[in-house]
Design brief:
The complex is a heterodimer. By secondary structure, chain A is of the alpha/beta class. Helix content of chain A is about 40%, strand content about 10%. Chain A is built from 15 helices and 12 strands. Chain A has a 5-stranded parallel β-sheet, sandwiched between helices. The chains are: A alpha/beta, B mainly alpha.
């Protein structure tokens, strides 16, 4: 054998042994997947007198498993339907899905345990100031796998139902190179699955009570909207032209923004489009004569949101739309019901805030008691725990 | 003596073919314009559409509902005319480039001008997002980069000695360079910026307005008469540098002037539309197959072919999935390629 190969082989074996050691509850001496009181005490005592090879972190994990998980591994099912067995709590987390990061923060997860995030969260200095200090692992489309491995995460968060090919690829590479790593996949932006995801993630991090509180807050808002919009006959639903970031680009049935428009009781004349974000003939909008026009700001139209308190920019977008050929004849323009909303509160984990605004704009009377602004502020203060005053910071809706 | 009679007869026949071809194209274009202005999501009848046009021209005499006048005048007419002018200009630019470079594959695309424009647009899209008036930034940047590419090709060719081969090679090098810059921008940009860049490369006349139409028609009005005026020089250059020099055409200077004019026409169109690639390559070929390569007729005729192709493609793009609009760059290829292949397979002298 080549002399240079031997050290490399030994190193590889060591890594494999170490990784294998990560499986199972630390201190579970008989390996029966239950950490008994006796086993825990023995492990802790041995650690104190330096009589076993467990590290301080192992003893801490064992304590948590014993105290909070009843000494047993925790089985959870993520949003891909896969069951993952957790033998110890999350300690070093890498997150590729910004919505999961936000949800973890809503649930009071200790952000110091997040060692790296995706490049988009990393760049959100206002909303995720703590991410500046964390590693940056790129995006799901071009992940920096070396950096991920160097950071030795025990858990990696990916998306469940979008960009599945890219996420599957990352998962396969992680599982091949780091046996025992836990890959958890959640979306955290879909109204249909978010409440369940909140509860599952809460149980993963041992914050069930907080999870219940947050899920109730989320559900109370969404239920209020759904109940308020229920029973409106189809022909009385507000006709909404929803414009994506780009001019004359709208949303069709497959787009998440269409779902939120419909939850809020609106009906989209262009929902039948074949593309997710179809470009429509400008004259079709005049013919459809929408009662409300919603324009999306953010990303492709980067003004406002958490990063900028710039009402003038949103006003300029709105004025541009009002001046389009023929728009003076549209009901929405005549009645002053053209609104700009930022994707920060209509996409992602905060979609319930934006959906509340939509509902209020579509049916001001039905939703007179709904206060999206207050919901938003409570979300930021009570759940996100960031010092952000909506009265003077950020711009999310206009007018 | 007999031979000259045969040649004369052949020439007379060719002249007849040319007249028929150009006459047919003009008639076809007029009919197509007539149909295109009646197409749209608003289901106006032919009569309603024309009354709306007339009401805009003679408000005192004709009257139409406000909405109809707005739709026809502010949304349809300039779009239809923009497609005509853009198709015309791209085809003329393609003819000129294929002629002076004596390369059947030469077009604003193979020479890197379009990929430079894409880079310019991408820079504006990725780095300028959110800046007020970013639409104009995209247009200005695309235009600037297209001309920059033309200058770079010119510079390299000049250094190496201007000739058709050096220009084509320099153009291909430029194309790859700018494509790489665009790819890099797409790589660092967000998903939404990527979407915007990709959409730009599809090409469409959605963003047409009357002022933009004015700019394009002004450039065409200034350049095309000059090209026609120098059609004999183009004919000479197409026969080869030596032939042209022998006929007293200043080869280098002419190549540069023609190249710059073709680039200017291309740049002013694609900065508004994004990359509509196919017209500049195929319209000249179709025309040459039909009526030969004499630039005196090739230029206007291929312009007309380009106009018909682009307008037909845009009309289809607006109608097939109405009220959705398919980017016209996609439809042009679907429409033009089968036609081109048909001609190519059925004409021996192609």
């Amino acid at each position: 054998m080549n002399r240079r190969c031997l050290p490399a082989l030994v190193l590889l074996l060591l890594v494999a042994v170490q990784a294998a050691a990560a499986e199972g509850i630390p201190g579970d001496a008989d390996g029966d997947r239950v950490l008994t009181r006796a086993e825990y005490v023995a492990a802790a005592l041995a650690y104190m007198i330096g009589d076993n090879d467990l590290a301080r972190a192992d003893i801490q994990d064992a304590a948590q498993v014993y105290a909070f998980w009843d000494g047993r591994p925790r089985e959870i099912t993520d949003s891909t339907g896969k069951t993952v067995t957790l033998y110890r709590p999350l300690r070093r987390v890498v997150i590729f899905a910004g919505e999961s990061l936000e949800t973890l923060r809503s649930l009071g997860f200790d952000m110091e345990k997040v060692v790296a995030v995706d490049k988009y969260s990393h760049a959100k200095n206002t909303f995720f100031p703590e991410c500046r200090e964390m590693g940056n692992v790129g995006s799901i489309w071009s992940p920096d796998m070396e950096r991920v491995l160097i950071l030795r995460p025990d858990t990696v968060f990916l998306y469940a139902t979008i960009s599945t090919a890219a996420c599957d690829d990352i998962q396969n590479r992680l599982e091949a190179s780091s046996p025992g790593i836990r890959v958890l996949r959640f979306d955290c932006f879909k109204p249909a699955t978010y409440p369940d995801e909140i509860r599952t993630i809460a149980s993963i991090i041992g914050k069930e009570e907080r999870g219940e509180e947050f899920a109730a807050f989320y559900e109370s808002t969404m239920d209020r909207i759904r109940d308020g919009a229920a029973g409106i006959p189809d022909d009385e639903r507000t006709r909404v032209y929803f414009e994506y970031w780009f001019d004359y680009t709208t949303v069709a049935a497959s787009a998440g923004y269409n779902e939120k428009t419909e939850i809020a009781g609106g009906t989209n004349p262009f929902a039948t489009g074949t593309a997710e974000y179809p470009v429509v003939d400008p004259e079709a909008i005049l013919v459809a004569n929408p009662e409300v026009v919603i324009k999306l700001a953010g990303q492709g139209l980067a003004v406002g949101g958490y990063a900028g308190h710039d009402i003038a920019a949103l006003d300029a977008i709105r004025s541009d739309m009002l001046g389009r050929p023929g728009w003076s004849g549209i009901s929405a323009v005549k009645d002053g019901r053209v609104y700009v909303i930022h994707s920060d509160i209509l996409g992602g984990a905060q979609h319930f805030i934006g959906t509340a605004y939509l509902a209020k704009w579509f049916y001001p009377d039905r939703f007179a008691d709904l206060d999206p602004h207050a919901i938003h502020q409570r979300y930021l203060t009570d759940f996100q725990g960031i010092d952000f005053d909506l009265a003077s910071e950020g711009t999310f809706v206009y007018p | 003596m007999e031979q000259s009679v045969v040649i004369q007869e052949g020439y007379t026949r060719l002249k007849k073919t040319r007249t028929l071809f150009i006459g047919g194209l003009i008639a076809g274009l007029v009919i197509l314009i007539g149909v295109a202005v009646t197409l749209g999501s608003a289901d106006y009848t032919v009569a309603e559409s024309y009354i709306a046009i007339l009401a805009g021209l003679f408000p005192g005499i004709f009257s139409a509902p406000d909405l109809a006048t707005t739709i026809v005048w502010d949304l349809r007419l300039h779009r239809v005319l923009f497609a005509v002018f853009a198709g015309f200009g791209l085809a003329v630019a393609g003819s000129v480039m294929q002629g002076i470079l004596r390369n059947p594959l030469a077009s604003p695309f193979t020479l890197g001008i379009a990929s430079a424009a894409t880079t310019g647009a991408s820079i504006a899209i990725v780095l300028g997002a959110g800046i007020a008036g970013s639409e104009y930034l995209v247009i200005a940047n695309a235009f600037l980069f297209a001309l920059l590419a033309a200058l770079a090709i010119y510079g390299m060719a000049r250094y190496r000695g201007i000739g058709s081969e050096t220009m084509v090679l320099a153009g291909i090098a430029i194309m790859y360079l700018f494509s790489a810059v665009t790819s890099l921008l797409q790589y660092v940009g967000s998903a939404e910026q990527l979407r915007a860049v990709v959409f730009w490369t599809f090409g469409s006349v959605d963003k047409s307005t009357w002022p933009k139409l004015g700019i394009v028609s002004l450039v065409l009005a200034c350049t095309i008469p000059y090209l026609l005026y120098r059609a004999w020089d183009l004919n000479a250059l197409a026969e080869g540098d030596e032939v042209a020099a022998g006929l007293g055409v200043p080869v280098e200077r002419s190549m540069i002037v023609f190249m710059m004019i073709a680039s200017l026409i291309t740049a002013v169109i694609i900065c508004f539309t994004g990359t509509i690639g196919f017209i500049g390559l195929v319209a000249p070929h179709i025309t040459r197959m039909a009526i030969g390569g004499d630039f005196r007729t090739l230029l206007p005729a291929s312009g007309l072919v380009g106009a018909v192709l682009l307008l037909a493609a845009d009309s289809i793009a607006r109608s097939v999935l109405a009220p959705q609009i398919i980017p016209v760059g996609i439809v042009t290829a679907f429409l033009g390629v089968p036609f081109f292949i048909y001609l190519f397979m059925h004409r021996r002298d192609a």
